[in-house]
From TrEMBL:
Organism of provenance: Micromonospora musae
Annotated DNA-binding residue span(s): 27-46
Protein known as: TetR/AcrR family transcriptional regulator
Species classification: Bacteria, Bacillati, Actinomycetota, Actinomycetes, Micromonosporales
Domain named HTH tetR-type: residues: 4-64
GO molecular function terms listed in the Swiss-Prot or TrEMBL record: DNA-binding transcription factor activity; transcription cis-regulatory region binding
Keywords: DNA-binding, Transcription, Transcription regulation
Residues spanning the signal sequence: none
Taxonomy, superkingdom: Bacteria
Length: 200
């Protein structure tokens, strides 16, 4: 029987090794050394370096997200952006994701898995968000979920994973509003400004 603690140690070691050297220089020997296990322990679980990496990608893609049902589309977008931004800011993720995307262009197996698991996850989360917004009457009934998900995920991923620009609170607020309007939710009603009472 395979021990869960050893499996977890191998997965942690893989993430650290990927961030340190990239997929091209990744080796089972180095992962085993970092995890403090034998190469046999890894090969009992995964048949190759590719299988090991793809399993980790699939597991990460299916990680838990908080329930995106805040009662409004803008609230859901804000929560989703905060969660995704936190994940993409992680030093390991910021190094691993661009490297795997580059490797996917050369490795059909990695490309297929990335396309399958990441796209499925995006559609699962984003599609549910769009469905809720349509039910609330915030979006038109004919809103295309696939296009909507691209509009939701694309700008944030580009800024954090590709351009690697910081994400301020004001930028996040602007992004939420821009995406909501772009999806057809209409502009938010501005809040009345508070004014100081006049001196008497």
């Amino acid at each position: 029987m395979l021990r869960d603690d050893i499996t977890a140690a191998i997965r942690r070691a893989l993430m650290q090794e990927l961030a340190a050297v990239g997929y091209g220089r990744l080796s089972i020997e180095a992962v085993a050394r970092r995890a403090g296990v034998s190469k046999t322990a890894i090969y009992r679980r995964w048949g190759s370096k590719v299988e090991l990496v793809l399993d980790i990608v699939a597991a990460a893609a299916h990680g838990k997200l908080p329930a995106l049902d805040t009662g409004s589309l803008r609230g859901d977008l804000t929560l989703l952006f905060q969660v995704v931004a936190h994940a993409l800011r992680h030093p390991l993720a910021s190094q691993i994701i661009p490297d795997l995307l580059a490797e996917a262009a050369r490795n059909p197996a990695i490309d297929e898995t990335l396309q399958k698991v990441l796209r499925a996850r995006q559609q699962e989360v984003g599609g549910h968000m769009i469905e809720l917004a349509v039910r609330r009457g915030e979006l038109p009934a004919d809103t295309d979920p696939e296009v909507a998900v691209d509009l939701i995920v694309g700008p944030l991923y580009w800024r954090l994973a590709i351009a690697r620009n910081p994400l301020s609170d004001s930028y996040l607020e602007t992004l939420v509003e821009s995406v909501a309007v772009g999806l057809g939710a209409g502009a938010a009603v501005p809040r009345p400004r508070r004014t100081a009472p006049a001196d008497r």
